[in-house]
Description:
The structure is a homodimer of 474-residue chains.
Chain A: H1 3-16, H2 29-36, H3 40-52, E1 57-59, E2 63-65, H4 91-98, E3 107-108, H5 122-133, H6 149-159, E4 172-174, H7 176-188, E5 194-199, H8 203-211, E6 215-222, E7 226-227, H9 229-238, E8 241-246, H10 260-272, E9 276-280, E10 305-310, E11 322-325, H11 330-341, H12 346-357, H13 361-386, E12 392-393, E13 401-405, H14 412-419, E14 424-425, E15 427-428, E16 441-445, H15 452-469
Parallel strand pairs in A: 3-14, 5-6, 5-8, 8-9, 9-10
Antiparallel strand pairs in A: 1-2, 4-11, 6-7, 10-11, 12-13, 13-16, 15-16
Helix pairs in contact in A: 1-3, 2-3, 5-12, 6-12, 7-8, 7-11, 13-15, 14-15
Amino acid sequence: MTLYLQLAETLGSRIEQGLYRPGDRLPSVRAMSIEHGVSLSTVQQAYRLLEDRGLAEPRPKSGYFVPAARQMPPLPAIARLAQRPVEISQWEQVLALVSTVPRPDVVQLGRGMPDISSPSLKPLTRSLARLNRHADARALAYDGIHGSPLLREEVARLLVDSGCRATASDVVITTGCHEALSVSIRAVCEPGDIVAVESPSFHGAMQSLKGLGMKALEIPTDPVNGISLEALELALEQWPIKAIQVTPNCNNPLGYIMPESRKRALLALAQRYDVAIIEDDVYGDLAYTYPRPRTIKSYDDDGRVLLCGSFSKVLAPGLRIGWMVPGRYADRVLHMKYISTGASALQPQLAIAEFIGNGHYEPHLRRMRAQYQRGRDLMIDWVARYFPEGTRASRPQGGFLLWVELDEAFDTLRLDKALRNRGVQVAVGCIFSASGKYRNCLRMNYAALPTPAIEQAVRRVGESACELLEPCEA
Amino acid sequence: MTLYLQLAETLGSRIEQGLYRPGDRLPSVRAMSIEHGVSLSTVQQAYRLLEDRGLAEPRPKSGYFVPAARQMPPLPAIARLAQRPVEISQWEQVLALVSTVPRPDVVQLGRGMPDISSPSLKPLTRSLARLNRHADARALAYDGIHGSPLLREEVARLLVDSGCRATASDVVITTGCHEALSVSIRAVCEPGDIVAVESPSFHGAMQSLKGLGMKALEIPTDPVNGISLEALELALEQWPIKAIQVTPNCNNPLGYIMPESRKRALLALAQRYDVAIIEDDVYGDLAYTYPRPRTIKSYDDDGRVLLCGSFSKVLAPGLRIGWMVPGRYADRVLHMKYISTGASALQPQLAIAEFIGNGHYEPHLRRMRAQYQRGRDLMIDWVARYFPEGTRASRPQGGFLLWVELDEAFDTLRLDKALRNRGVQVAVGCIFSASGKYRNCLRMNYAALPTPAIEQAVRRVGESACELLEPCEA
Lengths: 474, 474
């Protein structure tokens, strides 16, 4: 990473964390140059980048300032949940969501789809084309069940960035993170077992619990700090929980990054009560701050964390390549992986390994992180502008998903219905709860480069919500 | 299909079925021309093809004759099995097999790997290359959970050949047949349930039963007629069986095609006892006879058959694209598919759909069927020549896998060990039984075009077996 980028990241995260408040004067170019031991032009480049990102505002002859506060919707509330394990419902709504395919006449804000039109992905498709042009028969053979050694090595190298010391032999390649999660659950639990989950929580992982016959115990989750450790401890005391399933980095759907101290505390709890942790890090590389956040796995000293990730969110979901570091559960994980899909496809593995090995991964990440961060700010702005008064919204620290909370009595299933003929699709909140909570919430995707059509679509969601809020008698 | 091919198939299957015996004179070219209303040159072309396949022998001035009988090893015995459901073992041996990747220094006869070096596959890799050269972003997006409509339509069209009337909407695309089988089991059974299986039976499907907590009830299986309906009926009477899992066409590992009347009888049994049938048709398109055999699904009138297949054996396993027709279990199948891997990769689906749509599928199949049939004859010949006296072998009617049975006391695990330093790998028999039977059997792959190195490898297997048979005291 070049110096000016590093500097911009440092200063940017200080601004984001509120060390400088709206209207504050930022350190002068000269002062920064001295403090960080870099040239004046490096500081100026960093400031220009921050300006692009809307984090700094130049004023003639006076230097850089933090822009005046935007009108920000308040944060979502923390759900008060009945603490008992439940069977998971909402498959119908999930099915409706995952049956969708891209359509030119619908702006799809519902799915967890990254922007795959970025030119920084070109080397990847070039690799895939080359693999096929040379009709390399090897790449169409069965791969070994563990996955390609080339990709496993690259994944192990990437893991260093999240503080994780793993070797290639610790890594298992999977068919997307979906398989990694599902295999993890099956490796750790038996049907009927209880798994503690964040609430709200990724619908895919919850449907896996449902499909495999587990029960979910929803733990209240803070939109800034993540899963409530206090509530979790109570639950561990009270129920025979087998595993804790969390997405601590760039959480889906809430967008927070769990503070490091809380990650360590969560691990300590798991150790005390001897339960496994299934850690979903599928969005971790898309954190807006540098360096990227650590995983719980990076603190794991007795192999109880099953770390799951994939290239679906950082590269492209159609590759269907995920990975996991299963720790002490490796044997059972391998068996479950075998019966799930056998070996994973080799061609995309080789293409991804080449993409990373040739140094294309980091620049691509940097580009996407910046794009998504701008997307977040715009999307929050639109929610503030177009949604009913009192609407709350998350402050994602990475990824490309915004969680929106409407009036408590609001029903997003009705909204979803109303939107069907208006060319917009969102993810309804109830699928993020085991028991159909969050009917007043929805999740929207801001991955795509902003266009008037997307703003128009978000506006339509907001306006439809306003219409539905009007009393029926009016 | 051209006339001469059709004629060759007809006459070839008459010879194979024994209507003409070794040494018999075959009908004259002129007689055939009159009987079938085709030109003399068409008949001559057909005969030349039969000659290539070793089914006809020209004798100067006398016409064509059935070649003298080759020395054929006797058929494998039918196992006498204890009829009680068992937990499945042998994961270690399966893991050893599926951990292998192609190595230049080892002749791998163990895996169910087709020949992917055929030039008739070129249009497929060209499609994949083109999809990536144009960097068609759509193909890297999430696909809908059901799979690509294009491929579903092509699969529905192919199904006509096996007598199955299905529309695109009845088809679900999966990540290989492995996923189709695993999803089927989970859609139909609960942990602890009993599933009746052929014995011997495909290790992948059995490991799925194991991983999902089911028990297997092994049913004696005839190397010509398939699963014993009599034993199956007894078992259905005695045990609360939930599903019957069979591979009636080009069975793995025995290679038989179950006669149609027995397929219908099997379905009738399933209806009478109200159990589901999980039908694996992954090798069905590779039957050596034309037209290809029907599936049990083709007789299914109440949706109880879950038909599973893939392009792994007919095109290439690295594509990881399978399909299923789940009948009345569609809803649950879709949920299980979702939690298994989400949607399957779109690029290979589009490439396969194009391959079929452009008419490349049939010619490729014809080529591979002919190659595999020749491979079978050679492999049986080698077994007769190089293996210990008394060795038995199957007579595969399709596919590319030969089942070999050695002396009852023989231990192929010891053979496998001995072969490790001799550059050959086979599949040991015990993985084809839920309870570790068939230790005296092994499975060999004859998909690759024969080379002296392959003959040498088979010879080494045979010779190693002979050495191990010698009394230790000697």
